[in-house]
Amino acid sequence: MPSSVRLQEMIRVIRSARTQGEERGIIQRECADIRAQFRQGDNGERSHSLAKLLYVHMLGYPAHFGQMECVRLIASTRYSEKRIGYLGAMMLLDENQDASLLITNSIKNDLSHNSQYVQSLALCTLACMGSAEMCRDLAPEIERLLRASNSYIKKKATLCAVHIIRKVPELAELFTPSARSLLSEKNHGVLHGAVVLITELCEHNPGTLDQFRKAVPELVQIMKGLVTSSYSPEHNVAGISDPFLQVRILRLLRILGHNNDTASDAMNDLLAQVATNTDSSKTAGSAVLYETVLTIMDINSESGLRVLAVNILGRFLLNNDRNIRYISMTSLQKIVQTDHNAVQRHRGTIVDCLKDQDTSVKRRALELSLALVSAVNIRSMMKELLIFLSTCPPELRSHTTSGIFNAAERYSPSKRWHIDTILHVLTTAGGDVRDETVPNLIQLITTASELHCYTVHKLYRALVKDISQQSLVQVACWCIGEYGDLLLKGECEEIEPVQVTEDDVLDALETVLQSHMSSPATRGFALTATMKLSTRITDNVDRIRSIVSIYGSCIDLELQQRAVEYNALFKKYDHMRAAVLERMPVMDKNSPGHTNGDTSGEIKEPDPSKPKPVEAGLLSEPASQVCDLLDLLDGTDTPLQPSPAPTSNPTTTSSADLLDLLGGLEPTPVLTETVYEKNGLSLKIQCDKQTETEVTVTLIGSNSAQNDITNFTLQAAVPKSVQLQMKAPSGNVIPAHGLGQVTQTVVLNNPNKVSLKMRIRVSFSNQGAVHQDTVQIDSFPTQASQTSVSPL
Length: 792
What we know:
The structure is a single chain. By secondary structure, the chain is α+β, with helices and mostly antiparallel strands. It contains 33 helices and eleven strands. Helix 6 (about 105-110) runs antiparallel to helix 7 (about 115-130), helix 10 packs antiparallel against helix 11 and helix 14 runs parallel beside helix 16. The longest helix has 20 residues, at about 20-40. The radius of gyration is 37 Å and the shape is elongated. The two termini are about 55 Å apart. Keywords: Cytoplasmic vesicle, Golgi apparatus, Membrane, Protein transport, Transport. It comes from Cyprinus carpio carpio.
């Protein structure tokens, strides 16, 4: 390519390059020619060379060597060179580079130039890349231009003032007097800039709200003029008069009317007029109506106006544009708690959005549908949600099951309906439910004594049909072990009776034990159920003994331990087997032993798949027999000493403390400290283990809000000399109302024994809003110290 070609020719040659290497060669040759042109001084070609360099920069190649040339061209007296110089400054310079300070004086001189186009170049550059120092130096010049008679300059000066306020908020007072006077302008560009400037002033300096609330009647008149004005080709967009200005005015009215009755009353009539007269068939009209709805909901508006706003959002739900449907449901989600009855009128349309092909629309429709569930519509809404669960994308299943469980627990019309609903969910999406679902359902079944026969029959049929859903299989095994005698009787009024033999039940449990799909926990449930059936059947006890003995050498330690203990019950303590394996008592949900999935307490819920411990009534057996049982658990032959009447703190004089079957019921207190509490999320830190060079802590997140927290993630950073290891979290969804927790273990290896500090970034979503925050932990809880937390 010959040297010093025109810009158009260079673009044509670069685009015709067939390979990346050929393109790089062309760029390198052209850059070398541009450098040569810069070194030759003022030869009339510098602006053309810089223009070509800017195109090279747009392609992603280095162009920093043109920065000083930008400074030289800005100082030129020729408009053509000055224009390219300012364009280059906006593209190649930023506020962090020292070269940007060199153009401050040139900008100041050009702001006083007699040509409006030169002034415009300086204003655009300052608004684009002006640093805080430049803004402080040039703010008086901008304030002077706000009072200029030229609308073209005044429009650009207002937007430049907005940039200065964002960079240096303390300069806001300088522009406050001029901003109010700009509202009297007739030029739409100046008006738009003035509204943006006043909005920025109100957001950065709430003290100016009272001053600008006096301008509400003026803003209302401007807005009415836009709504009722005749067709104007200059400002018309799809039949709407200047929708950009309307949106900006509505946004400013929302700020001025927030928590202020006087300002809200002044704009109520206007908002009703906009809501009824604006055509929503075009995108521009929908944008104006959406801002109108947000303004109505954020100010102290009348109840009838709020109903009108909800109806507008309901019409948005029928729009073919998915983006409009999405923002409509996002807005309804925010107001469903305060205007529940008004939103309920659009329940059918919202439920229909669950069938949308777009996943984001489905997610919003799901969250809104769950928020609309009440005691009145629980049956119809749950029917729709269960249909959606069978077809919803995998990424929504966990959220759907969690919402269904919460709604069923809160509004269930009967225990049978509650059990049927949970079983339906487990059958459809058993692999996507929370960990506490199994113990919660078991607790519910135990309290519904009149439904034991119905439940065990239904669960047995589900188990025979499908063993892939682990949560369902665990509950089914537990019920068969507890209520197997009811299953074998075959007498059930609530469901069609099916004759089940002992061999059928044992075959089903053996299938679970032998299946490769069964997890270790599920096998534990099945083995315990098999053992419990030994006291509920009569003809197949030897088969049960054979099944249990097989797992005495299982590679899984938990399963092996259970099998060994159960074998011992068969061989050495057969006379006590019936008492040890009798039915579990009714579990009280609010008892200390049952936490409903809340693991914050120090007493954990017993594993329902294990047989209950020996009760006090069993101690009436001969002392030698009881010692034999204790020998099974402890491996000691120390005889049992006579004990007094039962008290709240039973003790023995035995050195082996034989009665302490659980190894001590008084755990060492573990200190937990709250390090973060905002937007319904509470994050606590607990020190599990501490040595001289290693600390193991657990971060515990709970949710006190009314909606589930989703996408919950934690990120941690420590000093370079400390090694950080974060274990996998227990989940990413925290149930509402404190019904569950998410935990994550963090191991800190500190070989240099430096002072431990950790910074945690918390990220989560609540009601569609994404929250992210950071906290600093300067010390960790121990037995003798407290946590020092400094929010960032």
